[in-house]
Design a protein that fits this description.
Two copies of one chain form a homodimer.
Chain A (H helix, E strand, L loop, with lengths): L2 H24 L5 E3 L6 H5 L32 H11 L6 E3 L4 H15 L15 E6 L3 H9 L3 E6 L7 H7 L5 E6 L13 H8 L9 E5 L17 H5 L8 E6 L11 E4 L2 H14 L5 H11 L2 H30 L6 E2 L8 E4 L5 H10 L2 E3 L16 E4 L6 H24 L1
Parallel strand pairs in A: 1-11, 3-4, 3-5, 5-6, 6-7
Antiparallel strand pairs in A: 2-8, 7-8, 9-10, 10-12
Helix pairs in contact in A: 1-13, 4-5, 11-13, 12-13
Chain lengths: 424, 424
């Protein structure tokens, strides 16, 4: 008998016991939300000095003496751009500071390309017929949603553990209707993987058929380590500088998971020409971002070392939750050959692959037992996980005890759903 | 001899003396910027308590207990929406709170209509061929710029002192390619006029040929009085409620000129259906606006009476500057039949009409003498003031003494440019 057959037989035998356990869990009336990558209250409080970092109106001046309470400075507070430049290892002049949402900067960048075209005198995307984006999967649902809303078709490309499968990417971009790719290159959402040097080099040297192809490089977790050492991510801007791909990459960053998710500072990084081009358009949209919050951030974050120390405090809070998740999975699911999960060194998510054709059922069972997960399928374009296997686990918000409880419930649901499937 | 001929003869005779005076002024090397409606530092300091209005993390909760430091609450802080609702006399549920820029909300609203269409299943504007907006003139250059960037043609409609010429508006909107009109109905930019009851009623009962025609109702100065009494503006939402025009109006508001221009709170007001429709789209764009700044505003602004008291403090600072502007114009220009100016009861601008074909020359002369005005023509679409007559005067930023000095220079330039013209 094959291993899978043995597992199936054992699970089918266990089904009545699993059902009884599940019934007991339901009667506990749990209410645990693990659907989104929300920092917990303890993490938020690491940044409460931000509330008081401007002590008086005399603090409302930039280093060059500009009164940030007033209109002006469309590019934002220069010294915060300098700090971000150090964190991201890019020139400060290649940064546009925004409001509180990097998602908004991505959405606006897509909309500008649709309405007005990218830098380089290409036609607006709206005038180029049906266009498409590549979406490494599993990936981030909000990236996919922007395309969906804008009528851009989504083409899934599998992740490999070292980033997207570049053989497939290189093949797909021969189609000139492929205009972009969504990437979370470090501690990817949800797999947690960091793109390998080879992957980044291949992305940097792509030869897309579309001259206005753009890489949307979401550095959401770029300094969000769980371990003492960080994953190394090649600097794609160093690789493309001076090449014909110099204008191919838009990167995005924010302090949403450094300071406050509701009131951080977002930024966009790109080539000198792309930034100049974007700034010209942004001037039609707004007079300036909220510079008060930018200067508050500058006074609170101070310098790169202070930021890294803050990130270590975040890690101290988060790591036990990730460890507990993996511990519970190992405890209850280690024997099942059809289940696997990631054990990331950073970021906000663990990617759990359950038995094929049961992810929706697992999420439903968990929900009915009071544990809300990200909807099954959300990590795929059109919510369509062809194997119905992948679940995104977000351990950041609940306490360690709640994570233990919730993951125990989820593990039970994984086994129960598999046992049900084997019993069909 | 006609009055104009007499004035011309006198001015031509005075030309050498005017030139000498101008030369003397140039040698003073002034540096005064009256180009934009920027609040002055004294006004900004009225709101400095805003910097400290959140005293601790315990203050970071909404009335219903939501921790605004985190993700969530896409509609913003409910109690601030309630306060805006009171100020604007609209239901709170018809308000969307935004970031710091109402211009950004206008731009986004136009872009969404272009990309996705308005509420009511109309085609996206991008799929309807050439479209146009009506622009009452003189008007606000940043409104015009949004249309220009988006490829929407601009059709000028003259202001009458009681709002736009509604005979012309009613005629123009018979063209289904006319999709919108920009209005600043109270203390209009730059004329300072408030739309009369009749104008508002006629706008509310328009019968545009385009079913997706929209009124962009910019309430930028709605509580920005210079006098003890306020101009009465009919509530257009009351007039359209329950009519076939119920979804025709998008209104915009911000605290940019109540608290801080660089870090206020913007809002959009519309019908229930338009707001629901807009919120659905905004959900693709961002998770939530900066709620920390919203709650800071709520704690600082407190209630409508506190806001009105704050506006009176603004008026105490601003009114002497407006009075000085008008006083200087009366002193130097009262005798000239071809010159006129507004004497507004609120808002941020005085509209100055100089001798036809000399506005550009006046602005150039003033600039060379160290006084920067809003560029001549900026108050008209495509910077094209057909009479080259209108100048927007923004007295808010300089001190009263500086206003006196600058307006004396401008008055001299008005006379000098006219004298030059008469000498041709």
């Amino acid at each position: 008998m094959s291993q899978l057959n043995q597992e199936a037989e054992a699970l089918v035998k266990e089904l009545p016991a699993l059902r009884a356990q599940y019934q007991a869990v339901c009667e506990e009336h749990l209410s645990l939300d693990m659907s989104r990558g929300k920092p917990c209250a303890e993490q938020l409080s690491l940044s409460d000095e931000l509330l008081f970092s401007l002590k008086s109106k005399d603090d409302c001046l930039t280093a060059s003496g500009f009164d940030i309470r007033n209109y002006g400075l469309p590019g934002g507070v220069p010294e915060l751009a300098e700090l971000f430049a150090e964190l991201l290892d890019v020139p400060a002049e290649n940064i546009i500071l925004g409001g509180n949402s990097s998602l908004n900067m991505m959405y606006d960048t897509v909309c500008r390309a649709i309405l007005f075209g990218t830098y380089g005198n290409c036609l607006p995307w709206k005038d180029q017929g049906k266009i498409k984006f590549l979406c490494p999967v599993p990936g981030y649902d909000r990236h996919f949603s922007i395309c969906k809303r804008c009528g851009i078709d989504l083409v899934a490309v599998p992740m490999t553990g070292k980033g997207p499968d570049m053989d497939i990417v290189e093949e797909k971009i021969k189609d000139p209707s492929i205009k972009g790719i969504w990437c979370v290159p470090k501690y990817s959402n949800p797999s947690g993987e960091t793109y390998s040097d080879e992957t980044v080099r291949r992305i940097a040297s792509m030869r897309p058929a579309a001259p206005d192809f753009r890489v949307f490089w979401d550095l959401a977790y770029v300094i969000h380590d769980l371990e003492d050492t960080t994953d190394k991510l090649l600097n794609i801007f160093d690789l493309i500088k001076g090449t014909e791909n110099e204008n191919m990459v838009y990167a995005f960053f924010s302090t949403s998971k450094i300071t406050y998710p509701g009131a951080g500072i977002a930024a966009m990084v790109s080539s000198k020409e792309n930034i100049r081009h974007a700034k010209e358009d942004i001037a039609y949209q707004t007079i300036s971002p909220d510079k008060i919050n930018q200067l508050r951030h500058m006074k609170f974050l101070k310098d790169a070392d202070t930021v890294y120390a803050l990130m270590k405090q975040h890690a101290r809070i988060l790591k036990p939750k990730f460890d507990m998740t993996v511990h519970i999975f190992e405890k209850y699911l280690a024997g099942l050959s059809f289940v696997n999960w990631t054990n990331p060194r950073g970021g906000y998510f663990i990617s759990l692959n359950v038995m094929p054709k049961t992810a929706k059922r697992v999420a439903q069972l968990a929900k009915e037992a009071g544990v809300i997960l990200t909807p099954a399928g959300a990590t795929f374009p059109y919510n369509n996980d062809p194997e119905d296997r992948n679940l995104r686990i977000a351990p950041s918000y609940p306490s360690v005890d709640e994570v233990e409880k919730a993951m125990t419930v989820v593990s039970l649901c994984v086994k129960l759903a598999a046992a049900e499937k084997f019993s069909e």
